[in-house]
Specification:
By secondary structure, the chain is of the alpha+beta class. Helices cover 18% and strands 15% of the residues. It contains 4 helices and 6 strands. It is rod-shaped.
């Protein structure tokens, strides 16, 4: 019974040691550059529509039903009798002034016509309401049309591979601190082995997928954390490898290496 338990303990220790020193699981990811493709641009289509110049006149009938009303205005005559007592002074013979223009022989006698006894009412009839119409026959000017050429200018093309290879390509890398512990230790060991530097003097900037052949120039961008790579003709179809870039703390120089698969 003791031997059976001892065997179980030994088997558990062996399984633990086997799992602890087992190689980390890795899988290959195709890192080839995609080939540029060309697309077709559809032609523009135009369609014309006829404008509608139709008018719908509406004739409205005015309201001609007038109801005239005749009213009698207030016309009241009130006779007023007045007396003049100044003639008694003239009858006494007192002569104040002699005005020849008021003598009887120099003035003509005027007769005052008698006032009518009643006011005369004049009747007036309203004339019928008349309307007048005037026809306007003015021709509408035809609309102005402007033609546009629906053709599209021919696109400009140039050698794509030479232009692409002449431009730097930004490659983003993996954060070295966020990698699994076993993989981090493996990359650190290979970096120290390839460069011969002390790991305490190195500041790892990242792990970047870079082509194994055809790299003409490489530059690190500290703002974005990416590297700018210029490639040549040898990089066409080349396989990508894991490229470790680090900076030395003492002289701020760069060291790098490819991870061995």
């Amino acid at each position: 019974m003791v031997i059976g338990r001892f065997r179980d303990v030994v088997s558990d220790v062996a399984e633990t040691i086997r799992r602890a020193f087992k190689d980390p699981f890795c899988r290959d990811i195709p890192l080839g550059l995609p080939e540029p493709g060309a697309g077709a641009v559809t032609m523009l289509e135009t369609s014309g529509r006829e404008l509608s110049y139709r008018f719908n006149p509406v004739i409205s009938i005015p309201d001609l039903n007038f109801s005239p009303a005749i009213q009698e205005g207030p016309m009241r005559f009130e006779p007023v009798q007045r007396s003049e007592n100044a003639w008694t002074t003239w009858a006494s013979g007192a002569k104040v002034s002699d005005m020849s223009m008021f003598k009887v022989g120099n003035c003509t006698r005027l007769a005052v016509p008698a006032l009518p006894r009643s006011a005369v009412i004049r009747k007036s009839e309203l004339p019928p309401f008349k309307t007048a119409s005037r026809g306007i026959r003015e021709a509408f000017a035809p609309p102005r049309a402007r033609g546009l050429a629906p053709g599209i200018a021919a696109p400009k093309t140039r050698s794509g591979l030479a232009s692409i290879l002449g431009l730097p390509i930004a490659i983003a890398g993996l954060d070295f601190q966020k990698l699994p512990k076993a993989l981090n230790m493996r990359y650190t060991f290979q970096l120290v082995k390839a460069t011969g530097e002390n790991i305490r003097n190195l500041d790892v900037l990242g792990v970047f997928p870079v082509p194994l052949k055809g790299v003409a120039e490489l530059q690190h961008d500290p703002k974005t954390g990416r590297i700018l790579v210029n490639l040549n003709q040898d990089s066409v179809g080349a396989r990508r490898g894991r490229f470790i870039l680090a900076r030395k703390k003492d002289d701020r120089g760069y060291v790098s290496c490819f991870v061995e698969e």
